[in-house]
Amino acid sequence: MNQHGIWTAPRRALFVVAKEPAAGQTKTRLCPPLRAEEAAALYASFLADTLDIMRRVSGVRCSIAYLPPDAEAYFSDLAPEMTLVLQQGESLGERLDHLITQALANGAMQAVVMDSDSPTLPAAYVAQAFDLLDGNIDAVFGPCRDGGYYLVGMKRPLPALLREVQMSTPTVLADTLAIAAREGVRVALLPEWYDVDTGEELAHLAHELHITDAKTAQHTRRGLAALAWSANGDGRNS
What we know:
Blueprint: E1 12-19, H1 36-55, E2 61-67, H2 72-78, E3 83-86, H3 92-105, E4 110-114, H4 123-133, E5 139-143, E6 149-154, H5 159-163, H6 172-183, E7 187-189, H7 199-211, H8 218-226
Parallel strand pairs: 1-2, 1-4, 2-3, 5-7
Antiparallel strand pairs: 4-6, 5-6
Helix pairs in contact: 1-8
């Protein structure tokens, strides 16, 4: 944005929703198998890889939508080239709607928000979201295997799709698509991927990294190695 809060070229806005890593407050569903401080450290690795994914998407303006309010310095040091925006709203749906609505109101033509715990997500999927919004659709979602979504993008405000859905349930995306059908919203879906919230998903991540190119999610690879996590996804090395 310029000093007047208006978006300048490019008109594609890419956000990541992120929290400052803190033991006992970050990725708590990974405890167990991890300890609280380990889960926070691993999330820091996820976040670093997510920022690298964003950097590989061309023609977009990257921003971090952060929490808590006193985390600005942390994120400024982490990605000094990215704009920082404090998340606003009580629920996740409210915060997502606020981000997208404000970006579009300030001059962005497309606004996409991605999560920060899918460290192996192909950057091509994020780029595809913007390309789909170039067409005749109103919104795009990246389905997660757990029933939620890893990404949402819109080219006009659609608050009902975000504020009327109860988040963190196995039917988040299905409920969202039902509202979209009710509202006559044209929706496109990206390829399915996954986020890492549970021990089972952590094992899947470790296995994926074991069989993929060593350049994929390098921060997360180092984070798992620091935890002595088994490369075959079975858990800690003995």
